[in-house]
Amino acid sequence: MQLEVGNIYEGKVTGITKFGAFVELEPGTTGMVHISEVANSFVNEIRDHLTEGQAVKVKVLSVGENGKISLSIKKAVDNPPPQHRDNGGRKPFNNTRGGDRRPAQQQEKAPMTPEAAFEDMMNRFKQSSEERMSDIKKNVDNKRRSQSRRK
User: Fold this and answer.
1) Rg (CA), the chain
2) DSSP secondary-structure letter at 6?
3) What are phi and psi of 63, to 5 degrees?
4) Is there a contact between 13 and 56 (Cβ–Cβ < 8 Å)?
5) Assuming Cys at both sites, which of 21, 83, 128, 142 could form a disulfide with 41, CB separation 3.0 to 4.6 Å?
6) Do 23 and 11 contact (CB within 8 A), yes or no?
7) Partners of 72 in beta bridges
8) How many helices (H) does the chain have, and how many strands (E)?
């Protein structure tokens, strides 16, 4: 069988690792589904979503010159239901400076492209990371000061 990028095929899960799952499309033709391509929600443990021997639909993302086949389960699904993270019952807020402080449900939002969503996620990660590093530096400085006072 000649695989075409973008086509959807049926396959069988033949192996599961911590970083992905191997899917046999036909005897002798196996591709890999990376953990990020298993589901539309965060996947911590692949075995929560897949089992060996399970029949799955996969979309061919790429076929490398070396014969490696990259597959996606989440992109093979027509219209997946939106996945929402549990926020503990709190209403999400727009935390931008000078931004609209109404709950997110009341704000009009233009649909985000995957690139814009990724950029937004990265900006929030950077901000959080910088805040944590600042806290760590303060703690280290406080410990150094208290040790120098003891001497």
Assistant:
1) 23
2) T
3) -130, 110
4) yes
5) 83
6) yes
7) 59
8) 1, 5
Residue 5 is encoded by which pair of tokens? 């990028």
Instruction: Write 4-9 long-range contacts (CB < 8 A, 24+).
Output: 4/60, 5/60, 5/61, 5/62, 5/63, 6/59, 6/60, 7/59, 7/60, 8/57, 8/58, 8/59, 8/60, 8/76, 9/57, 9/58, 9/60
Pairing relation of β-strands 69-72 and 20-26? unpaired
Given the DSSP bridges, would you call strands 69-72 and 29-34 parallel, antiparallel or unpaired? parallel
Look at the pTM and tell me if it is higher than 0.70: no
Reference 10, options 49, 55, 40, 48; nearest CA is 55
What is the number of other CB atoms lying within 10 angstroms of the CB of residue 107? 13
CA distances from 8 to 28, 79, 100, 102 (A): 18, 14, 42, 42
Residue written as tokens 């929030």? 124
Q: Per residue of the chain (151 residues), what is the pLDDT tens digit?
A: 688 888 899 999 999 999 999 999 988 899 999 999 998 888 889 999 999 999 999 999 998 888 899 999 999 886 555 555 555 555 555 555 555 555 555 555 566 677 778 888 888 888 888 888 888 888 888 888 777 766 6
